[in-house]
Amino acid sequence: MVLHGLSATKTECFGQMIIKLTKTMEKEEAESYLHKKVENGEIVSPVLPEGIKNYLVDIDGTICDDIPNEEPERMATAKIYPDALETLNKWYEEGHLICFFTSRVEAHREVTEQWLKSNGFKYHSLLMGKPRGGNYHWIDNHLVKATRYNGKFTDLIEKEVTIEVFDDGHEH
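Given the sequence above, the corresponding structure tokens read:
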């Protein structure tokens, strides 16, 4: 249920009904968080509010059939992965940012936006031109978490894994 930007979810816990209200972040509000910020007279990088995630989500092979750029005629009819639609729209309704980050090229923007709209995906932004080839290793000055899509979208769970990091001179 969504009412004036608020989303209500009902769950039952130990016989008690719990209603959780969350604020849906529309594109305009998201952009206000992500543009020029000034603190103490200096321009600083924007930071999202506590608890808000900035999801970067691939398209081909992640939310729908894996269609290469060499076959753009198939993009308009790509088969959707229903669990992806349900999960991503849920995250959107919870107030998280959804950005599709795809290897599709700028020439495919219109067909991509139309496909996302006709299939009911809610999102804040679309970035075209992600490098192709996989085996990504993202280096950034902000916290980065990565989740490899392996055939099913669900709520995320916590799991301990080994990752590669820069040697900062501290004990491991």
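DSSP finds three helices and eight strands in the chain. Try to locate this feature in the token string yourself.
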